[in-house]
Amino acid sequence: MTDSPDPLRKITTHTFRLKKQRGEALTMLTAYDYPTARAVDLAGIDSILVGDSLGMVVLGYENTLPVTMEDMLHHCRAVSRGASRALLIGDMPFMSYQVDTKEAVRNAGRFLQEAGMDAVKLEGGRERLDAVRAILNAGIPVLGHLGLTPQSIHQLGGFRAQGKSADAAEILLEDALMLDEAGCFGLVLESVPDRVATYITQRLQIPTIGIGAGSGCDGQVLVTHDLLGFFDRFTPKFVKQYAVFHEEIQKALLEFQKDVMERKFPGEEHTFSISDEEWELFINRAGEA
Length: 289
Ligand code: KIV
Known about the structure:
Layout (H helix, E strand, L loop, with lengths): L12 H10 L3 E5 L3 H9 L4 E4 L3 H4 L11 H14 L4 E5 L9 H13 L5 E3 L7 H9 L4 E6 L5 H4 L9 H17 L3 E5 L3 H10 L4 E4 L7 E4 L1 H4 L17 H17 L14 H13 L1
Parallel strand pairs: 1-2, 1-8, 2-3, 3-4, 4-5, 5-6, 6-7, 7-8
Helix pairs in contact: 2-4, 5-6
3-methyl-2-oxobutanoic acid binds next to β6.
């Protein structure tokens, strides 16, 4: 009997391992709400990341730093109501795992216990190993995240590619090996030169999920709002826009505005009616009132 994947079966961290072994590409997209989670799940994407990119693409912040645990849990709950198949990963926000290990475990646990997530993601390498190990010891799967780690933008000097020197690439590789050894089930590599990402991918037991890290990673992740072209503002070099939603949205909104001004909306087909009999009764009573 062949062990071929069932398209309706819930994706688990075990599926991630299997796909890497089989050389099958993994797919991951972000979602922050119920309808997007439904759409991503229905499309058969392996995994949904409720990323702290929420802060930038939904809440309108300049970066991810202001996002809180309560923000994340609120959006994770909505996503978990919309998806049944994809592996659901909650992104631990800034300061929810950096201060102390116990707090990190407690916060990681809230993603599973209160918000329906299957796993958590956190940023960083050797400096976060204690937190990663403690969360794993509590039985919570962890996805690592190296390269451009947006919660450290002030330390990194902005949103810029990482691992571009031999020294930096070596540190990246060491960190990746440590996260693999610690027991993470996968690793996001963000904004890393493709040759470096491919080499790291080949050295790891666990799958790498690239974003701006070239085609040599085991899988790819994008921010869904970028992929759908939700904004007319700057999009990073590594984004491929598969739709231009902001144009469609503007078109629809302008049409609504025009229809209302010209009294073309609502039409009869959007309107409820009352029978002549009930209308007569009402008018007679209303006159007496
Ligand atoms: O927050 C996020 O959406 C992420 C992805 C870009 C990997 O961390």
